[in-house]
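Colleagues,

For the teaching module next term, I've prepared a clean inverse folding example: a structure given as tokens, and then the sequence designed for it. I'd like students to try predicting residues themselves before seeing the answer, so please don't circulate the second half yet.
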């Protein structure tokens, strides 16, 4: 058994790559499976937020509305 990645042979590197791919596929599968789907068929809509009146704040504790 190789205890260092530097002295590992080709088969050990291949095992590490395969295990990383399997783990990545499992995480991706889990993420897709826990994703929630809405059955109402509606799509997301963007909400428009309109700006209010501008406020100018000075160095004092009072504010002035123009």
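(Answer key — instructors only)
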């Amino acid at each position: 058994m190789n205890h260092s990645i530097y002295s590992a042979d080709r088969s050990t590197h291949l095992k590490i790559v395969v295990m990383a791919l399997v783990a990545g596929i499992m995480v991706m599968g889990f993420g897709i499976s826990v994703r929630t789907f809405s059955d109402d068929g509606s799509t997301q809509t963007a909400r428009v937020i309109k700006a209010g009146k501008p406020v100018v704040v000075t160095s004092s504790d009072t504010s002035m509305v123009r």
